[in-house]
Amino acid sequence: MSEEKPEPGISPSADWREPVHYNPLLNSDRHCWAGEWLRRNPAFLADLREARCSPPDQSGHILCDQDCRLARWGVRCCPIDGEATFFWLPECNPLVLAVEAEPHADKSNAFDCRQCPLFRAVVRGADGQHLLFSDGVRHLQLAVKEGDALTGPVLLSCTLRGLTDFESKPLTLQRLCRLARRGRLLKCLYPPERRARRWVEMIRAWDGATTGASQRDIAAVLFGERAAREDWEAGFLRTRVQRLLFGARAMVRGGYRRLLDPEGEGSSGRVKG
Q1: Is 102 helix (H, G, I), strand (E, B) or coil?
Q2: What are phi and psi of 184, to 5 degrees?
Q3: Sign of CA pseudo-dihedral 134, 136, 138, 141
Q4: Which residues, at least 6 apart from 162, have a Cβ–Cβ distance to it below 8 Å?
């Protein structure tokens, strides 16, 4: 009997009524947030269960199917240590940096990702290597189009084309340089999400609804039993919960892609919820 792939999510046993399960999201970047919304889409989960990824080989590579069905979601996603790990495609997330790698002996100008403490995983497909670095809440992703970034110290090069690259890639380059020099993803380069608390309310409301909770139950958990009892009939809380669910539904069905818009990085104005 084949082992069933684990369901992705904050936790397989997360209780939407307990905010402690969702508190880590308050400091998470948009790479993480987009994944949290996508992993709540039943059609995506069905595709994920059918995805064909090999276990990591001796070099640490995970091999993806050339015709990976998850590409239609803008992502490669592989179970690593029992957790769904997202690698966003560059065309979906402009903050992904496409690079070429060549062996280089000058360590002061080269990057050895194998020695980086935040190096999480690498996926290899027909389009090259996808490298992911993460401290759990902040992420950096490289798409290696030419060469092998796992052979040792490599000299990285990239080409910027057009205004979109000029606007989005400098931030990723700064993150990469600080990671290479300091071994950390600096908090100052990941502006806090001012709508994070709102998004947490949306995602908890969605998780509650999918487990069968009524809108009034959701209001009681999120805003207090007294408020739900006294204000529900007036319609204010009912409308508030409905708006949370409407925004969550939009995110799950494709709005997560807007979170990856470089012009919306760290701001609240471009992503409505």
Answers
A1: strand
A2: -140, 155
A3: positive
A4: none
Start-to-end Cα distance in the chain: 42
For the chain, what is the radius of gyration of the CA atoms?
20
Q: Tens digits of per-residue pLDDT, 105-132?
A: 888 899 998 889 999 888 887 778 889 9
Segment 151-171, tens digit of pLDDT: 889 999 999 989 888 988 999
Q: Where are the domains of the chain?
A: 51-189, 196-264
Residue 66: pLDDT band by 50, 70, 90 thresholds?
Answer: low
List residues bridging with 140 in a β-sheet. 133
Strands of the chain (E only): list them: 61-63, 75-80, 83-88, 97-103, 119-125, 128-134, 139-146, 154-157
Q: For 190-242, what is each residue's pLDDT tens digit?
A: 988 899 999 999 999 999 999 999 999 999 999 888 877 777 777 788 889 99
Write down the pTM of the prediction. 0.83
Nearest-angstrom CA–CA distance, 21 and 73 = 26
Closest CA to 116 of 91, 99, 133: 133
Which residue, among 23, 27, 22, has the nearest Cα to 9 in the 3D structure?
A: 22
DSSP H or E run through 247: helix 236-250
Closest by CA to 261, choosing from 128, 151, 167, is 167
Q: Which of the 8 DSSP states describes residue 7?
A: P
Count other C-beta atoms under 10 Å from residue 131's C-beta: 25
Whole-angstrom CA distances from 88 to 67, 98, 217 are: 16, 12, 35
9 vs 37, 187, 260, 273, CA distance in Å? Answer: 9, 24, 19, 20
